[in-house]
Amino acid sequence: MSLSVRPQRRVLVTKINRSQSFAGVNSTADRPFRNLSPFTPTVSRKTGSRVSRMFSMSHKSPPPKVPQPNRLDEVYEALKKGLTAYLEVHQLELEKLSTQIRESKRNSRLGFLYDLDKQVKSIERFLRRLEFHASKIDELYEAYCIQRRLRDGAHNMVKAYSSGSPGSREARESLAEASKGYKEYTENMCLLENELESQLGEFHVRMKGLAGFARLCAGDQYEIFMKYGRQRWKLRGRIEVNSKQVWDSEEMVFLPLVTEFLSIKVTELKSLANHVVVGNVSCETKDLFAALPQVVAVDINDLGTLKLSLEVTWNPFDKDDQPSAASTVNKASTVNKRFSTYNQSPPDTPSLREQAFYVSVM
C-alpha cells in the first residue's frame, strides 16, 4: 500500500529515551522521506484535563472479510520486537533492584528492603505476564500460518479443477469441495487476524503541540482531527503570546489496528466559515510498538514547515494496572533517595526479625 511508510528516527526531546519521526504522506500519492529538525513546542495544560477514550472492549472492530497476510506478517514482526524490548527493559530493572537488595542487606533498615522486595515481586509478575502474552501471540500467528497454507492449497486445487474439463461428476464434486475449503480457511484467517489484533495493547498518545517556525503566530487557531479505523480524536488549540499553546484535549488512547493507518488532518480556523486545510496525511503505526515512550514528529504540509509533535507510549495490555518502564524508573529513583538518607547514619545492628527477613529475601 502507498501509505506504508517507515518513519525516520531522530532525537527530539532529551528526556525521552527513544524517539522517532513520521514522514507523513498524502493520501493520494506517495511522498519521499522528509528530514525533520529538532523542536520542543511548549504546551500549557488546562486544569481538569484527562485521557480521552472513545472506545471500549465491546466496540472492537468486526473480523475483516478479506485477510491481509502480508500486512499481518509486518505487524507481527514489529510486535515481537516491541515485546522483546519490553522484556529486556524490565529484566534490566529487575537485576538492578536485586543488586541493590544484595548490597544493602546489612546497610539499610527493614522498611527500605521491604519496599525493594515489593518492587521486585511486582516486576516478576509483570515479566511472567509478558512471557505468557508473547507465547499466546506466537500460538495465534502459528495457527494463522497453518490456515494460510491450507487456503493456498485449496486455491491451487480450485484453479486446477477450474482449468480442466468439469464434465465428470467427480470433477464437479472435487471443485465444490475445494471451493468450500477455500471459503472456510479464509474465514478462519479473518477470525485469527481479528483475535491477534485484539492482543496488540494500547497506544497512549499525548499532544505536545505544533511547530511551525515562522508560520505560527499569536492568535492562530487550529483544529486537529485524527482518525484510526473507527476511532476518532478531535482537538482544538490556539497560539498565545510567547509561543505558548493551549489545547482543549491532551491525551487519547487508541487500540492498535493491523490494516489501518493513522490519518491526521490539520485545519486552520480563520473565521466562522473560512477554514483552511493545512494538511491531510496518513502515517504508519507498526513502528510504535516500543518499550519506552517515543516523540513522534509528523510533517503536516508538503514543505515540512508545519509539524505536529506527539508523545506515544505503548502498553502491551488493555488495562492500565501494570507498571510501565517509566513508573519503574521513577520508583527506583525514589528508593535511591531513601537509600542515601539511611546511609547518613551508621547502620543499626539487625534484630532477629530483620535477620529472618534478610534470609527470606536472599
Automatic annotation (TrEMBL):
<dbReference type="Pfam" id="PF15903">
    <property type="entry name" value="PL48"/>
</dbReference>
<dbReference type="InterPro" id="IPR036274">
    <property type="entry name" value="HR1_rpt_sf"/>
</dbReference>
<dbReference type="GO" id="GO:0005737">
    <property type="term" value="C:cytoplasm"/>
</dbReference>
<feature type="domain" description="FAM65 N-terminal">
    <location>
        <begin position="16"/>
        <end position="359"/>
    </location>
</feature>
<protein>
    <submittedName>
        <fullName>RIPR1 regulator</fullName>
    </submittedName>
</protein>
<comment type="similarity">
    <text>Belongs to the RIPOR family.</text>
</comment>
<dbReference type="InterPro" id="IPR031780">
    <property type="entry name" value="FAM65_N"/>
</dbReference>
<dbReference type="InterPro" id="IPR026136">
    <property type="entry name" value="RIPOR3"/>
</dbReference>
